[in-house]
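User: For my dataset I need records formatted as: sequence, then structure tokens, nothing else. Please produce one.
Assistant:
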Amino acid sequence: VQLQAFGGGLAQPGGSLGLSCVASGSIFRLDAMGWYRQAPGKQRELVAAITTVGSTNYADSVKDRFTISRDNAKNTVYPQMNSLKPEDTAVYYCNADYTNYSGNKYSNWGQGTQVTVSS
């Protein structure tokens, strides 16, 4: 199972960026999907996550600024990032929990995508 991330790049403070992540491969059921980020010298942290039925969880630092959604038919998760701040600068990683056709559960990571917020 592969996770491919799209989006990211450079944004000005107060601006917006969108990301997306598509899961593909031998997936029987795609469970929770989410985004994490890691800034230089810091640990990787949860940004936002969403379950199959749409329940969401956000880091306090991004509440009211970021919105996560998903399209179950497309195995895709979309975080929309608004009111960006320089402290949002980090490498963003997609994560997905899934069950394969043998009933085994896994958690995979996508490649990171750089988000830089700077004027």
